[in-house]
Specification:
heterodimer; A: 115 residues; mainly beta; 6-stranded mixed sheet; 4-stranded antiparallel sheet; 0% helix; B: 113 residues; 7-stranded mixed sheet
Chain lengths: 115, 113
């Protein structure tokens, strides 16, 4: 498979446990945030997003938390499964309206699920 | 099936030989973009396009060109590839802008020797 990061931070969790992946963003003007999952040999896949007027958003087994005060974003995965093993990226977009702006990605975290 | 299709998936070329990586989406998305992915650096945006005939530079545009003559296609052109452009490239599209969900292609592994 593809090697997307030789020195990625790695999070190892036991199957069935909850996972928390953290991300610090840089731009205080960012008002839209996204989490992507990238499996080996594939392109990034959208997981969940959140806008800056919210501090929490839930999806199926995933929750994103946004703390604008400290510019921190986290992704929580409940009951982690082997299929969750992947690299997870957060991304930020500085402007909400107008579109077409740059999307800035973090360097990613490797999640390893141990059986 | 909604998808973003890139071609080729793998390419080995020599320095200075012009090449084009194609990208096509079937979702009628307005916004398309190109990224390169390198170890330890994550995904970095090369160019993006808000609509037909509207393109703009991303964070790392040097050595690349793009065009958007049709809504569905957004080719990436390397006029004179160099070894530092060896990378994994992804095309993505989204409905309106980078503040909406992006769909990524499968990637193109480019090696310039």
């Amino acid at each position: 498979g593809e090697s997307v990061g030789l020195h990625l931070p790695t999070l190892s969790v036991q199957e069935g446990d909850n996972s928390i992946i953290n991300c610090a963003y840089s731009n205080s003007a960012s008002d839209y945030f996204i989490w992507y999952k990238q499996e080996s040999g594939k392109g990034p896949q959208f997981i969940i997003d959140i806008r800056s007027n919210m501090d929490k958003r839930q999806g199926q087994r995933v929750t994103v938390l946004l703390n604008k005060t400290v510019k921190h974003l986290s992704l929580q995965i409940a009951a982690t499964q082997p299929g969750d093993s992947a690299v997870y990226f957060c991304a930020e977009n500085p402007q909400l309206t107008g579109g077409g702006n740059k999307l800035t990605f973090g360097t990613g975290t490797q999640l390893k699920v141990e059986l | 099936e909604a998808q973003v299709t890139q071609n080729p998936r793998y390419l080995i070329t020599v320095t200075g030989k012009k090449l084009t990586v194609t990208c096509s989406q079937n979702m009628n998305h307005e916004y398309m973009s190109w990224y390169r992915q390198d170890p330890g650096l994550g995904l970095r945006q090369i160019y993006y396009s808000m609509n037909v005939e509207v393109t703009d530079k991303g964070d790392v545009p040097e050595g690349y060109k793009v065009s958007r003559k049709e809504k569905r296609n957004f080719p990436l052109i390397l006029e004179s590839p160099s070894p530092n452009q060896t990378s994994l490239y992804f095309c993505a599209s989204s409905l309106f802008g980078s503040n909406t969900e992006a769909f990524f292609g499968q990637g193109t592994r480019l090696t310039v020797v």
